Amino acid sequence: MRTPRFSASFLFRVAAPGVLASMLFGGAAVAATHQVEVGQNGGLNFVDDASHSSTSTIHVGDTVTWVWNSGFHTATSGSCSGICTSDGQWDSGEHSAPFSFSHVFNAAGNFPYFCTIHGQIMSGMVVVQQASNPPGASFKFLPNAPLMGNAAKFTDTSTGSPTSWSWNFGDPASGSSNTSTLQNPSHVFAAAGTYTVTLTVSNSSGSTTTSMSVTVAAGGALVCTPDATTLCLGGGRFMVQMHWTKTDGSSGGGNGVKLTDDSGYFWFFDPSNIESVIKVLSGCAIDNAYWVFAAGLTNVQVDLTVTDTQTGAVYENRNPQGAPFVPIQSTTAFPTSCP
Fold this sequence. Notes:
About 5% of the residues lie in helices and about 50% in strands. The chain is built from two helices and 30 strands.
């Protein structure tokens, strides 16, 4: 074994294929060039800049470029366990700096390599995976002409095996219900109109986005159905919901408890701990409007949504994160809801 005349390093350049593909072609996979240091910090080693080990993972079609910075080394394909044997796929030959050598990997598999000068103490591995692409976003929905107050069912039809989904229904009046991370969600549009629904799908290779217009017809009044997070006040006319968000980003729907036909309260974290009290009153005889009053005993972010199921009108109020709940005394919450 010959002693090298210099400490050495060679480089193996890496650009994340999925990221590069997304940047250049919006999802089409492209070949990349990758980097590893050999003899990093004067050692007899191969160190991949991405994995920080002697194993480098790339994709079919990518190029490995070895660049000698100093010293006297080779980049030779083959196994090296006791006796080193080249398999003839590539061999840079013995060179000192400045010198570079490239090899394109056109097949998947594991490809060991070594320095013929230093043998098994200086070896590495290139793992070549099949090229992958970001998924192609697409979806459909039923019914084709949804009605206000009825659930529209959205079905993911994306290609390329997405692993996560991000929906935006273009309906900010629906509060926290305006987004979803389910693969196949449903959404109730509270008012008639045309909405732009957007789906972003992702996997380890990147993400793509698509949008579609959904036209919602009036079709009739909403129906308030009381459940764990929904109060139905005023004879079931007003649908009341509260959504909480903590400082750590966790969130959820408040649990509603009805007190009278026009009032109730919400608890967030413990049934014995009341967080907010609310009532919806008719002021039609006074100022031709319905009123919303609320008070709270919390300083987390609270999003209140009150929907008039007869008109589709929505009243919203947000208590900011970290601020004591500011009492609500809105006598103009629903100024057009009186007969």
